[in-house]
């Protein structure tokens, strides 16, 4: 026992050392080779152009764009209609960060800053023609990731143990006509920095599904399935919350006689949760077109998990930045690369496998991004969207007609070259949330009552159910 304890302690020290090393890497700068000057790529002219092209009708192409043929002949070169849809779902993923309260001194730390009716309007995403129908909350029974207990004011916090993890949205009537079906979207939030949860990975795989052959990383599964009666928002798990809403919306479209699809988007950890969500949805709703579009997602399960997702008809598109480390974990060594030895070892059930088609983009393709090593920048959603917007095909230069606003890249990192004069980490609340009160003192204001995540009386068990019913009526009929 003493020997085993020593080995565990030694392993933990190694993991801690690796995690600490990773956390220092984002600050490392390596001078790269000189690139084309910005004057050659027409940066100044971009200020006077729209940030996106007019939307086109894709009603007769939606199945291909949704992955019915696994995106064959659509990725390299990248189909322009598919590019716009990828960016749209990426912006839905980015919204889960932009609206999340990361302030550890806030009594609402871990919640969404806005109620669901205001979310897209506040973030400028109402242009996409979707409405949020339900917020999803998650917790975990394991110590992954550590940001689940980020708040420093737990005694007065809005919740005990739960965090806002994403939302379910649905296209409005105009959007449904444009894209050819009713589109249910689930957007999952991820972590901020990969070093926050690196140490907690590389552990055991847990079985999922009826046969027990498919296995997934235990920390991801815990976040997706954990619940506790001691919490307000996770008396039901994230799994139960999202599936209840998806089933309700699918039934709604079925009764209307309209086609419907489910698109699940997520970044980082959110990409892992998206796969678990897709696996469960495909099992519960056979025949429903389901696709996953993930950004910088880690490996989730073994080869049997991959195979069962394929058998269930789930279509998965992984967008990967070549320099991003997160898609390489867990399973840095024990991964799908070992398949070459299958004739000798057989299929290894404890080896991690990626799943789905891959769109690979490269930081070096953009003349607007800094050279060097910047883990946070490589992993940022906005970096991903910038590179997708500029990608034409492998080996080609950055698209000169790319329209996405360059300044967005530096919202939460320092990736843009200094010549652009865009401040790094610029996306924040004015004065970090402090406002002057009537006496001229700087104070942290209270949220508007409609944006407080827990307006319901703690002792009343009937009100939450009534509130959910009202929200569903509002979502479906606009009342």
UniProtKB/TrEMBL annotation:
Q: Name one GO cellular component term.
A: chloroplast
Upper classification of the organism: Eukaryota, Viridiplantae, Streptophyta, Embryophyta, Tracheophyta
Specify the domain of life of the species encoding this protein.
Eukaryota
Location, primary (coarse class): plastid
Q: What Pfam families does the record tag this protein with?
A: Lipase_3 (PF01764)
Give the GO terms filed under biological process for this record. Answer: lipid catabolic process
Q: What is this protein called?
A: Fungal lipase-type domain-containing protein
Identify its protein family: Belongs to the AB hydrolase superfamily. Lipase family.
- Which parts of the sequence are annotated with region: Disordered? 1-23, 444-463
Its keywords, alphabetically, are:
Chloroplast, Hydrolase, Lipid degradation, Lipid metabolism, Plastid, Transit peptide
List where in the cell it is found.
Plastid, Chloroplast
Q: What CDD domains does its record include?
A: Lipase_3 (cd00519)
InterPro entries, per database record = AB_hydrolase_fold (IPR029058), Fungal_lipase-type (IPR002921)
Which SUPFAM superfamilies does the entry mention?
alpha/beta-Hydrolases (SSF53474)
Q: Name one GO molecular function term.
A: galactolipase activity
Q: Is the Lipid metabolism keyword given for this protein? A: yes
């Amino acid at each position: 026992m003493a020997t085993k304890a020593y080995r565990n302690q030694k392993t933990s020290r190694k993991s801690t050392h690796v995690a600490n090393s990773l956390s220092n890497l984002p600050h490392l700068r390596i001078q790269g080779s000189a690139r084309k000057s910005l004057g050659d790529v027409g940066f100044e002219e971009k200020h006077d152009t729209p940030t996106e092209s007019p939307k086109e009708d894709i009603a007769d192409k939606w199945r291909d764009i949704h992955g019915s043929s696994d995106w064959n002949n659509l990725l390299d070169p990248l189909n322009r209609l598919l590019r716009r849809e990828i960016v749209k779902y990426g912006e839905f993923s980015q919204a889960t960060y932009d609206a999340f309260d990361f302030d550890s001194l806030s009594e609402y730390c871990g919640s969404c800053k806005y109620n669901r009716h205001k979310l897209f309007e506040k973030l400028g995403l109402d242009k996409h023609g979707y409405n949020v129908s339900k917020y999803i909350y998650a917790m975990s029974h394991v110590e992954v990731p550590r940001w689940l207990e980020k708040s420093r004011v737990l005694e007065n916090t809005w919740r005990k143990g739960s965090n806002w993890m994403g939302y379910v949205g649905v296209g409005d009537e105009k959007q449904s006509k444009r894209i050819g079906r009713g589109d249910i979207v689930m957007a999952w939030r991820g972590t901020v920095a990969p070093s926050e949860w690196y140490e907690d990975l590389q552990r055991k795989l847990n079985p999922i599904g009826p046969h027990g052959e498919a296995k997934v990383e235990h920390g991801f599964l815990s976040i997706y399935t954990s619940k506790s009666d001691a919490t307000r928002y996770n008396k039901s798990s994230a799994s139960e919350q999202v599936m209840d809403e998806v089933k309700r919306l699918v039934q709604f479209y079925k009764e209307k006689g309209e086609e419907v699809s489910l698109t699940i988007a997520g970044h980082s950890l959110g990409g892992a949760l998206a796969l678990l969500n897709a696996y469960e949805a495909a099992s519960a709703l056979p025949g429903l077109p389901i696709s996953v579009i993930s950004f910088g997602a880690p490996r989730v399960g073994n080869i049997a998990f991959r195979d069962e997702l394929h058998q269930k008809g789930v279509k998965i598109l992984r967008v990967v930045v070549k320099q991003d480390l997160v898609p390489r974990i867990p399973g840095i060594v024990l991964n799908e690369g070992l398949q070459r030895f299958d004739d000798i070892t057989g299929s290894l059930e404890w080896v991690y496998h990626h799943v789905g088609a891959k769109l690979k983009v490269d930081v070096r393709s953009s003349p607007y991004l800094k050279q060097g090593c910047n883990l946070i920048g490589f992993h940022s959603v906005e970096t991903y969207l910038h590179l997708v917007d500029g990608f034409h095909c492998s080996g080609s230069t950055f698209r000169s007609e790319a329209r996405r606003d360059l300044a967005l890249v530096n919202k939460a990192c320092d990736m843009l070259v200094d010549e652009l004069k865009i401040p790094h980490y610029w996306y924040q609340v004015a004065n970090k949330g402090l406002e002057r009160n009537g006496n001229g003192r700087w104070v942290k204001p209270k949220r508007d009552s409609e944006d407080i995540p827990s307006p319901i009386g703690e002792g009343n068990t009937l009100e939450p159910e009534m509130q959910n019913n009202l929200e569903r009526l509002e979502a479906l009929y606009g009342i």
